[in-house]
Amino acid sequence: MTFKVVSKQTLPCELCEREMERLTAHHLIPRQSTKRQKVETSPTIDICSACHRQIHALFDNKYLAKELNTLKKLRNEPQMQKFLAWIKKQDPGKRVTVHRQK
């Protein structure tokens, strides 16, 4: 009897660039900011859950909509740069705990 090894497909997180089995869609302009507009969809990026949780732990939706509404701006934000430098070294299979600011 032989077994076929099936590798799981992984995709890179657009922020930390780790290869992940699952990614989440992050709205660059939070949906609550676009509700009243006629625009049905706002641009999104595909990121891992650790990066997604960290973004929302650090920044409120108003700040995200006004100041961090592109991938480049998110990557260049100093608090995110510190997090990204750390998360890139973490095992993609490990659930990362995100600490909210006080």
Features:
102 residues; two-stranded antiparallel ribbon
List the SSEs and their pairings.
Elements: E1 11-12, E2 19-20, E3 24-27, H1 31-34, E4 44-47, H2 49-58, H3 61-66, H4 71-76, H5 78-87
Antiparallel strand pairs: 1-2, 3-4
The residue ranges in which pLDDT falls below 50 over 5 or more consecutive positions are none
**Largest pleated sheet:** 2 strands, antiparallel
Please state roughly what percent of the residues sit in beta strands, choosing from under 5%, 5-15%, 15-25%, 25-35%, 35-45% or over 45%: 5-15%
Apparent shape: globular
Task: Give me the Rg, rounded.
Answer: 16 Å
Helix content: 25-40%
In short:
With 102 residues, the protein is of the alpha+beta class. The protein has one domain (12-86). It is built from five helices and four strands.
What report would you give on this structure?
- The protein has 102 residues and is α+β, with helices and mostly antiparallel strands.
- It has one domain (12-86).
- Helices cover 35% and strands 12% of the residues.
- It contains five helices and four strands.
- It has helices at residues 31-34, 49-58, 61-66, 71-76, 78-87; strands at 11-12, 19-20, 24-27, 44-47.
- Strands 1-2 form a two-stranded antiparallel ribbon.
- Helix 2 (49-58) packs antiparallel against helix 5 (78-87).
- The longest helix has 10 residues, at 49-58.
- The N and C termini lie far apart (58 Å).
